[in-house]
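Thread: nicotinamide-adenine-dinucleotide complex, take 2
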Amino acid sequence: MKIGFIGLGNMGAPMAANLAKDHDVTGFDTMAKPDGISMAVSAAEAATNADVVITMLPNGDILRAVSAEIHAAMKPGAIHLDCSTVDVESARAVATQAEMQGLHAIDAPVSGGIGGATNGTLTFMAGGPETAFATTKPLFDIMGQKAVHCGPAGNGQAAKICNNMILGVTMIGTCEAFVLADKLGLDRQAMFDVVSTSSGYSWTMNAYCPAPGVGPQSPADNDYQPGFAAELMLKDLNLSQMAAQAVDADTPMGQAAAALYRQFVEVEGGAGKDFSAMLPRFETRRRP
Ligand code: NAD
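Output below.
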C-alpha cells in the first residue's frame, strides 16, 4: 500500500517506522525529521497518490487545517485514517468533509503510548465506514495488537475519551486512597496486596501502581518520569468535558478530575511528570 503519514512526533515516528517495513511510506512534519522515512515537502505532497493518509497530530484545530489541505490532494476513494486524539466534533467534521470530496475517513485514536507505538502493540478504537475499516485493518495489525470498530464517524474518539475519563478518575481515587491509608498507619504493600485482589482493584492499582516499590514496575519507580504525562491526561479530560457539555451528560467525577489535573499541571508544576504523580501531590496536602 502507498501510505502518506503526517505528524511524525513521539507517536507518529515509530508508527510510521513500523509501517515502512512492509509498505511504501512518505512522511511530512512541520518540525520533526525522523530517520528512515522518506519525507515530502508538504502534507499535500505526502497525500498525493496515497491509498491511505494517516494523521497523528496534536489537536482538532491542527487536524482540521491539515485535513483541508490533504483532502484536496488525495485520489478519489482514498482513506484518511486519523489516529490523533481530538474532540468528537472535529472528527465528525473531518469525516463529513472527506465524504463530500469522494474520500473515506476513519477516526482511530490509540491507547498504549510511546512504548506501544514503538513495539507495534497499540490498541485502536475506530469510527467510520465498515468497508474503510476493513481496508485499513492490515495497517492496524502492523501498528497494534487490537483494533475495535466502534461505529460511525467520531465513535473512536468517543470511546477514547470515555476510557480516559475512567482512567483519570480511577488514578485520582487510587492516589487519594494510598494517602488515606498512609495516614491510618496501613503499610503500602499490605494496601496493594488487599486492594489488587479485592473489589477496589483497577488498572491504575494493579498494573500502573502510583506508589513506588509495590506492585509491578511503573513510572512511580522511576521518579514519576512519564509514562503518560499529566498534561496529556489533562488534554483528554478536557476533551471528555467538552463532549459532555455538548451532549448534556452529567459527569461530576470527570469534571472534578479535569479540575484537579488542571490545577496540578498549570499551577503546581505537574507538567512533564507522569499522571500518577498525583500521589506525591496528595501527600503534601492537608484536608481543605
Ligand atoms: P507530538 O507533539 O510528539 O507530535 C505531533 C507532531 O505533529 C509534531 O512532530 C509536530 O511537529 C507535528 N505537527 C504539528 N502541526 C503540524 C502540521 N500542521 N503539519 C504537519 N505536522 C504537524 O505528539 P504525540 O505524543 O506524538 O501525540 C500525537 C497524538 O497522539 C496526540 O493527539 C496525542 O494526544 C495522541 N496520543 C499520544 C500519546 C502519548 O503517549 N504521547 C498516547 C496516546 C495518544
